[in-house]
Each structure stands twice: as structure tokens, then as C-alpha cells.
Amino acid sequence: MTVTTSKPEGEVAEPKMVAFTIDGIEAQVPEGTLIIRAAEQLGIEIPRFCDHPLLEPAGACRQCLVEVAMPDREGNVRPMPKPQASCTMTVTPGMVVKTQVTSPVADKAQQGVMELLLMNHPLDCPVCDKGGECPLQNQAMSAGRADTRFEDVKRTFPKPVSLSSQILLDRERCVLCQRCTRFSDEIAGDAFIALQMRGATQQIGRFDEKILGFESPGCGCGDGGCGSADETSSSAADTGVPDTGAPDSPGREAAVIGADAAAAKSRAETDAGGQGFSSYFSGNTVQICPVGALTGASYRFRSRPFDLVSVPSIAEHDSCGSAIRIDHRRGQVLRRLSGEDPVVNEEWITDKDRFAFTWQSAPDRLTTPLVRERDEAGDRGELRPASWAEALEVAAQGLARARAAAGVGVLPGGRLTVEDAYAWSRFARQVLGTNDVDQRARAHSAEEAEFLAHAVAGTGIGVTFAELEKAPAVLLAGLEAEEEAGVTFLRLRKGVAKHGTRVFGLAPYASRGLTKLSGTLVPAVPGTEATVLAGLRGPVTDPTTPAGDPRAAASQALREQGAVILVGERLAASRGACAAVLELAAATGARVAWIPRRAGERGGVEAGLLPNLLPGGRPVTDPAARAEVTAAWGLSGEEASRLSAAPGLDTAGIIDALSVGHLSGAIVGGVELADLPDPAHARTALGAAGFLVSLEVRRSEVTDLADVVLPVAPPVERAGSYWNWEGRVRSFGAALDSTALPDHRALHALAAQLGSDLGAGTPGEAHLAVAALGAWTGPRAGAPGARTPEFTAAGATPTPAGRPGTGADDTAVLASWRMLLDDARGQDGERHLAGTAKRPVVRVSSTTASALGLSDGVQARVVTGRGAITLPVAVTAGMVDGVVWVPLASSGSRVHDTLGAAPGDVVRVRAAQAAGGSAGKSIDTGSAE
Amino acid sequence: MTDLLPVLTDTWDAPRSWRLSTYEKHGGYAGLKKALRMAPSDLVQTVKDSGLRGRGGAGFPAGMKWGFLPPDDGGPRYLVVNADESEPGTCKDIPLMMASPQHLIEGAIITSYAIGCNHAFIYVRGEVLHVYRRLLEAVAEARRVGYLGTNILGSGFDLEITVHAGAGAYICGEETALLDSLEGLRGQPRLKPPFPAVEGLYARPTVVNNVETVASVPGIVDRGSDWFTAMGTEKSTGHGLFSLSGHVTRPGQYEAPLGITLRELLDEAGGMRGGKALKFWTPGGSSTPLFTAEHLDTPLDYESVGAAGSMLGTRALQLFDETVCVVRAVSRWTDFYAHESCGKCTPCREGTYWLKQILHRIEGGEGQDQDIDVLLDLCDNILGRAFCALGDGATSPITSSIQYFRDEYQAHIDGRGCPFDPSASALFPYTPRTPMPSAAAASGQLVGAGGGGH
Ligand SMILES: Cc1cc2nc3c(=O)[nH]c(=O)nc-3n(C[C@H](O)[C@H](O)[C@H](O)COP(=O)(O)O)c2cc1C
Ligand code: SF4
Ligand code: SF4
Ligand code: FES
């Protein structure tokens, strides 16, 4: 049972204390404390169902009744006539509370409520997923009667209802505590489920025409209603209890009852299953449901809680560093839950963090090292399993040869633990003698690297979650918080609700996430962010600015004490934007935090996985910085001389160099080539590499090209730490026993083969190695802008400040970012989760839609010289004209791969079928190409 | 001897009584004209002095409620008139709004002026479409002559009245559920505090008053609080509508000072129908504990009815004669509560579901000895444990009927069915639509007839 009290972090002001008595104990609690919380603090547990410390009080279940007496005006303590809900009443001075421990009235009241709750409960604990960890079960034991007096007919429902492809609801188990609906409404802002019907037929549900007895709005059959609707209304009328055609097979694919595909087609926000889009946070409702009414499709009927071993861990899917709990049985992870960490994720995680874990044990998991021979002409043979000894030897020889030739490029990927990141960084510098190292497997720029060196690396903990929550204003600069950093979005939303935080989003349209933050769009055509940001710098006083201009409001708000600018990954590829953020921060006094998408990127910046940085924010160009590194690593002789003073190549540079033989080899970590700005070019380049070593968990495009593949451990099989975006160290232990090596051990062994000591042979050693090089105290790297930034996104065209594409021709500026749930390999193997992804669409403003001859729901083609993406159009209100948006890496919409383009590029957009005579909308169901 | 006293009902028999002209002809809108020359705070004081208590059931002093509003902060404040009238037996507001809607409109204008409200709402029970229409027309009439709109009668006071039809739920008469419903949300009661006076409609200070309460205001303003306090008792002042229904010769609305007795009202109403004996009655709707013939002389004011173990409620006097099976009556009321429970809290949602089944079993001849005690214990677990007063109300008929008629319950259990003939209590002869196995079993015959009538 949850007994957390959320302690406000960093509060200095002493709260006023209130003295009261509970069960004869005199105590003091801070003013405003609920009786139920106060009791917890004293070790008195009052049973409860609807109460949840992070949700607003509801007082619905009435399980927590206690007797309360309060002093009247004369100071005589007078008992209240009825027992009171302790979860809704705050402690007041002189109050006398008697819980079930000392009050027979409270005890009887609680027993009475418990009996009523159990009366209609199916008592199917032996087959219920919650059995063994069920608050109802537990509290029935502590606060219930031994037998029941109920002899009548129980309420039943057809079971179960699919709320989404991921969440199932067994209505007869529900105690109607409203935790799930309050979570959805108050925390996530996705009112995808609600209470429906009333009295004993009250139930939780989503909008489901069958259950609610609605005529299907989308059925234009015109002959007096279609059959299915009739059927439903009559059955509901006959029984009084709603009857549904609910399917009884829970495990079926993304199909959801009541789906009205025709209606769904016209809705922009639908999930992959065709339903109105539900929520990225729905799994939390399963966790807080105090009974087994809500279950996750993937865990349902898989296990009993008492067979599970629970291990705390940290989620690997984003840079928030959410605390999670991993439950496993006999070497297999069965589920993940949110951990409790008031400082970071409170008690919430995204559905991706909860459900996407099967990738770690996917069938294409690499279990042994692999090597391949090449023939004289350099053509690759087949990979074959090899011993570690052989693989390390082959790898070492190949790397040594490449190092001696034109050198080795290092692409470690953005998902490393900080221990791994340090090992990679040191391997590059000490063993390979190169600064050609870059963790960024995404659109990036030299300007961003400078921004990171100047403003992020070695800065320790900056803006925190708690500060974000209380910030008066937050500018999301190229960050879709809900898509890219889910629990950060939840914190922001809490700030908006509780502290009046005002959110501004620098983007081409107001996403659902921004809307749920009651945010204001600061419109920007991709590529022009720098200009827009610059415009926010001075107070916007231009008399031509219309009243209520979002830029004026943003500019004003950012001046408030505690305002924050959050920088997202897509700003990297927008020329001048990173520099503009720093200038804006300087001008307004706002603080800056960088929120990358991947879990390893902040740690990677600390470790120096950038061409311009050594660990701890040390600039490669600074001799003193190099000297510190040399000393810390104990380098001498040849190794010491390998530390280069010149910044190296970034990801794009490394790939270019490989493709033309300016680098002879590469060592690559967890990088998906499809994530790179120009995947085709990367494939050619790695194909051309003289020697390629891959450290991977699973088979990938890189392993398919590699000469040596060293299998490494996924997070669940190793210990390590992430640095979350705050700069907070988030350590975790190995959840499963495994012989798989983490990256740092594989690299340590490889270094040893090459005659170097990497100091990362054990997790402990690797962890200490991080601390050995503290933050740089010398002069920080300069702010970006000192050198003309190079735009590295493939085929990028500098975007003029004006708005191209408005009507003149069929061009538009491409906007794109990643969805939380998309085609990424980290979500492989989780089909239930996949069903809740947003359906990919093409977004354009209505003006642009008419200029391009598009309308809602028709298929549009987004075309470059490289290829085309075809998706249904969602005309998007308030979107900037002349811009077309598609998801960056969703099913049927692999922007980099298919289009070879990046946000800011000019693309062509047209209706999918040329208007060859036939008028009207053309809806084809064909996918890309 | 207390006599009837028509105030609100005075014009009900006038031709086209619902017209504004009829209302004005009988002195209507004198109160408003007077009120607009007074300071709002003086109006609140006048109503406080009158001792007017809420006519919606709880009897909370109206002037005191108005006085709870926080000082004006420049933002909107609302008056919401509760016209949801759904309590079984309660049937006073609907006839009032049908026969003399301007009473309510004038009262709403004066009340709004007194509390600083520029937009008032009348939330009408959804099923009474005819009343909804009548109110819409009454508001339109008042606006046409300048009683509504801007600068009313040159006073500088502005007011709009919106008439809103509910969707048919008893719970939406509970004031906070009403506010949620009015806001377009699901009609379920809100947590209090904050009370509506502080955060009501759209989280702004709000007064919620019953139709009859508001309609009583013009008279008080026009004729003074002394006139009002001269009627009724010391703590239950003024006039009130007493709605007589059931086995009475002339059912209907009887307006009288509070403190009148049922015996006096029955005299006016021609006594019990067919001269039968009174068996039990509700003093204030089905949510108030039952009375029996021994309470015929209990003064119908808040204090006396309370002292006798019930509540004055809405003065909905439902009278049942000796032909009525109390188990059957209570069972029907319980069906109502089970149907109308909003579902928010466990005691009411689950409790009424269970109570209903037990009562049906007893009525149907399948009662067991422990059932009566289970009923009482269940009621004990619901009363005062539910989230709102609906749950409490559901227990009233059960506990009070067992208090007075426990033997009758026992007879159902022992005799494995109902000893009464339900058609005997009907106004005209009828054949029950559903078979009555209990009646059949009790009389030991008619088994085949019951089956055939199905
Ligand atoms: C279940 C329930 C139903 C109610 N229904 C009504 C109603 O239909 N009309 C009404 O005026 N008050 C009703 N009330 C009382 C209101 O909550 C509220 O007390 C009243 O409207 C206040 O007005 P008054 O002070 O003028 O009586 C109901 C209360 C409950 C608990
Ligand atoms: S589904 Fe679970 S969380 Fe939601 S109301 Fe029912 S019991 Fe509560
Ligand atoms: S007592 Fe509870 S369930 Fe019943 S109407 Fe009130 S809030 Fe709803
Ligand atoms: S826990 Fe207090 S009413 Fe539910």
C-alpha cells in the first residue's frame, strides 16, 4: 500500500505546525496535513482505496472513516455527529481523532464499507493478477469480516473490456475508487477513461458506443440505423445492466471493441488500433488500481506476485532517469513498474518505460562474439561465432592496423551508462588516439557540440524536476516534452496545475502535449528557430506587435525569477538556434537545461563522447585539461602523446571520412543507422570502412557490416548509472544474473589486447573511474557562435527567414520529431504497446492544405529526390503555413531513411493520387512508396 | 386552529395565472421596485430578520446563506435556483412554476440584486418539459418589460437569467451535483469544503436556493419581515406549501403557516380517501422517516417534526391508508434510491443495491429471519457514512418502517409472502401486471390467475 508523503524538495520555509491527538497520541503535523497522512506518520494505518497521495482527495470509497472531535468556540471538544473521511479532512488545532484502533464506531464503519465492497466483488483472487499484492485483499484481511451476509445476486459484467490494446478492464472487480480516472484527468491530462452510468451500474469506461448505447455517429447508412447499434440498445434495455459485445480473449492484437474505423479516420489523434488516442501514461492506472480491475495485456495471467523477484532499477528509454521496479521470475522479466522517487518521477512512468522491455531478450540477441573474414578484394564473408579470445585478438589487430593507417572513428551511440561512456571516451583517446568520437546518432551540428561543451558538460546538477515544477515560465525550445521526456512532461503539467507555470513551445504547431500544458505556441518554421529566439531577447515592444502576441508574452515571462528554457534535441540541427538560446538566457536571466531524448546522452557529454570534449567538460584544445586527463588516466609515453589537441570529427564527419577513406576503420556501439541523418550514406560509409568493430546487444545493420561483433549486456543484465538530464546520477544494479559483458568490460578487454589499461575491468572500477575526473574548473569552452556552425543534416538547405512553400508551388519546409512510441527497436516485441502509438499523419495548416490541394483524411505524399512518404493528412489548426510535419521515425514514416531529409529541408507535398479526372477525396490505404 | 394562507398560491386560480400581466395585476413586482431602492446589504438583513429557511429540504436560513458570500472581489457571483424537484412525493415547485412562474422570476431578480449576481441560473428537472417552456416564456416576458437585461428599472442593475434543463437525475438536486451538472460535468456531489458560497458555479461564490425559497422573497421584501415572522412558529417562520398526496380525498397543494398539523390539513383536504384509517405518512418526502397516525397532531415545523424523530424536509405529505403494505411501499422507495444513487460512494451505491434485493425477497416471500436485522445493520452502515444525503435518505423509510411495523415485516417472512392485496389500495380496480406470488401464497389461492396474468 502506498504510504508516501510527498515532501516538497528544497523548501526552506518552516511549515506551521498543528497540534492534535490521534488514538490518544499527542502529535504535531504541518498545517494542511490530511488526517490519513498524519496517521501514517505516526504508524497508524487507516484502510483506504480512493486515497492516493499524488491525487486530489475524492472521499469516494468511505473506507477511511474515523471519528473526529473538534474544539468549538469556547474550546469544548465536541465530537462530530458522523464519522469523517480521513482522506479529505485536514488536521486542525486541538482536533481529537479516533481511528479504528480506539473507536468502535470507526471500526464498525470501516467493516461496514468493506463488507459492501466485497459484496459485489467476484472474489476471484485465485485467478486475479492482483492477488497477492492487492490492497482490497490485504485490507479485507485487516479491516473486514470473516464471512459475508450477502446471499443475493452479485453484479456481473461481461469481461473484459479493452480500454486500449494495452489496458484491459474487468469491471466486476472495480471498486470505483476513481484513482484511474483522476490520474488520467489530473496527472496525464488524457481523459480517455471516465466514470459512466450511475448507481450500481456505474463503471469505468472509454467512449464506447456499444456500452453507452449511442448510435454510431459515423454510420451514415441512412436506413434507420445500422444493425449493430440496434442490437446494443435492445440488449442494454432488457437487462438493465449494460451488455457489451466485449470479447473474451484478452490477448488479441490491437483490436478494441467499439472501434469505429470510419469515424477514427477523420480524427487526427488516433492510436494505431484506430481508437481515439488514449494515453502514453495509461500503465500507471494499472499500478494504482487498488484491485485487479485494470490489467496490462502483456502481463495478464502471466504470473503471481509472490513468484516474482523485484529489483529497483532505472528506465533506459529517455533521459529522465525514472526509478522503476523490475519484476522477474526464473531469469525472465515479466513486468516493470514505476518506482517511487519523489525527486525525479514521483510514482509515474511512461508506458514505454513500463512495457517496452522485451527488446532486451529479443530473438536476435547476440550471445557470442562473431568475426568474419574478408577476401583479397575486401569482400565480406559470413559472420561466424568465435571465442572471446579470438574475437578480441582479431578486433585488436584490425583496429591497430586502422589506427596506424588513416585512423579509427568512434561512434558509441547515445544509450550508454556513464561508466560505459567513460570507457568509450578513454578507449578513443588513450587507445585509438583520436578525438573522432561522437555519441550523437541523430541530426547534430558543431554548434550543438559547442553549446554542450559550453553550457552543459561538467555543470553538475542544474535545473531540477522540483525547480521545473515551480518555474513561473518554461520555454520548450524544440522539445516535445510529452514525446521525448514523458515524466518531465508530467512534472511540467503539475507545475501548470499547482503553481501556475506558463509554458511556451517553440514549434511549428501546438502539439497535443503543449495543449495539455495549457501552453502557448511560439510559432517557428523549422530552421528559423534562431531568428525567433533572437526576437524574444529584448522585450517585444514593437508597436506593430498585435496584442496577445505569444512572443511578447514569452519574452516577458522568461524574465521572471526562476524561468527555464528547455532545449530539445531538434534544436541541434537548426542553424544558430543553440547560440540563440544562450543569448536569450543571458538577456532574460532564464536558466537553461538540455533534455536529450536518449538515456545516455547527458552522461556521454560528461564523459567526453564529443569531438571537442574530454571528460568533465574539459575542452580538448586546452593543454591544462589534457594534462589533467593524462594524469588521471596515468598515461605516459606513447599513450600520453596520443591525446590530440585538435577537435575531431563529429558523427557526420566520421561517416564522410569513412566513405572516402580518410578514416580506415570504426568502432561502433549501439547505433541504428536508420537514426542517422543520412542512413544511406552511413551504410555506404560503413561498408567502405576498412575495418569495423561493433559492440551490440542485438543484431543490427552495423553488426551486419562489422568485421568483429562483441556482444554486450542490455541494462537489465548489468549494473551501471545514467546521468539524467538534470545531471543527477541514477545508479542501478543488475536485475538478472548474466554472463554478458557491459561495454566497459568488453572495451577493457579489447584495450588490454592492444596493450592498454582502461581501468574499467569491473563495474566498481568503471564507476570509480567516472569520479576520478571531476568537473573541469578551468576556463570553459567558448559559447557557440565563435565559429560559423556547419549544418550537418544531409541535404539541408538554409531556410530563408520568410515562409517558403505558401501556395507558390508544391514545396513546404519539413518539420519532424520523434514520437514516444514509434518504430524504434527499443519497443520491439511489444505489440500491445505498439497498438497505443499515435497513428502517423501528415500535418499541414489549413491554408497550406488548400494551397497544396489537400484535405483532412486524404493521403498525401511527402517527396524528396530520395523517396516519398505517404500518410493521411491531418489539417492542423494554428499550424505555421508553408510547413509540413510527419513523425520522424514511425511506421511508414522513416524521414531520414526514406526521404534522406531532416527538419528544415524543403520537400514537396502532393495528394497521393494525381487528380486524374476523378474529383473528390481519394483515400488509398497504401503505405509509403 | 391554523388556517390555510394563500401567498404563493394566491393567484393560481386566476385566468392565465402564469402571465406577467396577471401577476402584476395582483401586486406582483412591487417587491422588486422596493428592493431596487434598498441597499443590497439591507435586503440581506431583511431576509435574515424574516427567519426564512430554505424550502428545499434542509431548512438552512436563507439570509444567513447569502451572508456567507465573501466580499465582492469584482468577479462574477451566481444565484442558482434549484428547480430539480425529484424527491418522491415532493410536488410543490413544479406546480408553482407552472401556475405562477413570475413569483420565482421576481424572487430571483431580488435575490441576485441582494447578493451581487448578474447572471442567475434556474436548473429545472429535465423531465418537466412543460415547466421548462413556461419558465423560458416567463423570462422572456420579464425581459420584454425591462425586469431583466441591463439597467433594470433604471437602477443600474443588470441581470440575465438562464433556464437550464437537467437530464433527469435525482442527485442533480443535491446542490453541488447540480453545480457540476450545470457546468456540463457528470452530476456527482462535490467535496465540501469549499462550500458553494465560496467556490460554487465555475468556482465562483454562489448561492443555491430552492424555488419556493426564492419565490418567498418578494413577499418578504414587499410586506416586511414582520409580516413573515407573524406567520408560523418562532423558529419556523412564514408560509409553506404542503403537498398532500396518496390516499387523501383531495390531494394537492395546501399553503399554510409552518406549524400546521396534518390533522388540520386533512380537514381541509376532505380527510382520508373513502374514510379509511391513516396507516403511515411521510412528513417531508420519502427521505424523511415515516410517521404514523400517532403523529397527526405534531406541528409541522422544523423543530417539532425533528423532535418527533423525522424531518420537515420538503413538506411532501404522502399519506397511506390501512390497505397499504408498508414493506411494498418501502421496497418501491428503495428501488428509487438504488436507481438514483449516483454511484460515487460505496455505502450508497452498494448498500442500496443490497437493500433492494433483501426487500424484494421479503416482499416476495423469500425473507429469512435475520433479514430484518441485516436491513437495520446495513442502514446503520450507510447512514452518516455516505458521501451525501441521498444515501442517508435511502435508509429513512427502512429504519422508520421497521421501527413502527416490524411485525409486518416478520409476517412477510413467517407467512412466506405479502398478506396484503395490492389492488385494494388502488384508486380503481386493476389487475397487477406482474404476478404476485406473495399475495397468492398468502391467500393460498389464485396461483393460476397470477401465472395467467403474466
Ligand atoms: C439527493 C438530494 C436531492 C435534493 N434535491 C433537491 C431538489 O430537488 N430541490 C431542492 O431545492 N433541493 C434539493 N436538495 C437540497 C439541496 O441540496 C439544497 O440544500 C437546497 O437546494 C438549498 O436550497 P434551500 O436552502 O433554499 O432549501 C437535495 C438534496 C439531496 C441530498
Ligand atoms: S478500475 Fe481500479 S483504479 Fe479505476 S476506479 Fe476501478 S478500482 Fe479504482
Ligand atoms: S450517497 Fe454517495 S453514491 Fe449516493 S448519491 Fe450521494 S455521493 Fe452518490
Ligand atoms: S480513502 Fe477516504 S474515502 Fe476513500
TrEMBL record, chain A:
Gene3D superfamilies in alphabetical order: 2.40.40.20, 3.10.20.740, 3.30.70.20, 3.40.50.740, Dimethylsulfoxide Reductase, domain 2
Keywords in alphabetical order: 2Fe-2S, 4Fe-4S, Iron, Iron-sulfur, Metal-binding, Oxidoreductase
Tree of life domain: Bacteria
Positions with biased composition (Low complexity): 788-806
Domain called 2Fe-2S ferredoxin-type: residue spans: 16-103
Region feature (Disordered): 232-251, 781-806
Pfam families noted in UniProt: Fer2_4 (PF13510), Fer4_NDSU1 (PF22151), Fer4_Nqo3 (PF22117), Molybdopterin (PF00384), Molydop_binding (PF01568), NADH-G_4Fe-4S_3 (PF10588)
Cofactor(s) the record lists: [2Fe-2S] cluster; [4Fe-4S] cluster
Any one GO MF annotation of this record: oxidoreductase activity
InterPro entries per UniProt: 2Fe-2S_ferredoxin-like_sf, 2Fe-2S_ferredoxin-type, Asp_de-COase-like_dom_sf, MoPterin_dinucl-bd_dom, Mopterin_OxRdtase, Mopterin_OxRdtase_4Fe-4S_dom, NADH_UbQ_OxRdtase_75kDa_su_CS, NADH_UbQ_OxRdtase_ferredoxin
Residues of the 4Fe-4S His(Cys)3-ligated-type domain: 105-144
Database matches in NCBIfam families: PRK07860.1
The protein's name in its UniProt record: NADH-quinone oxidoreductase subunit G
Taxonomic source organism: Myceligenerans indicum
From TrEMBL, chain B:
SMART domains: NADH_4Fe-4S
Residue ranges constituting the NADH-ubiquinone oxidoreductase 51kDa subunit iron-sulphur binding domain according to the UniProt record: 327-372
Cofactor(s) required for function per UniProt: FMN; [4Fe-4S] cluster
Keyword Oxidoreductase part of the UniProt annotation: yes
Chemical reaction(s) catalysed: a quinone + NADH + 5 H(+)(in) = a quinol + NAD(+) + 4 H(+)(out)
PROSITE patterns linked to this entry: COMPLEX1_51K_1, COMPLEX1_51K_2
Domain of life according to the entry: Bacteria
Keywords assigned: 4Fe-4S, Flavoprotein, FMN, Iron, Iron-sulfur, Metal-binding, NAD, Oxidoreductase, Quinone, Translocase
Entry's Gene Ontology molecular function annotations: oxidoreductase activity
Entry's EC annotation: 7.1.1.-
Top enzyme class: translocase
Coiled coil as UniProt keyword: no
Function noted in UniProt: NDH-1 shuttles electrons from NADH, via FMN and iron-sulfur (Fe-S) centers, to quinones in the respiratory chain.
Cited PANTHER family: NADH-QUINONE OXIDOREDUCTASE SUBUNIT F
Recorded family membership: Belongs to the complex I 51 kDa subunit family.
Stated name of the protein: NADH-quinone oxidoreductase subunit F
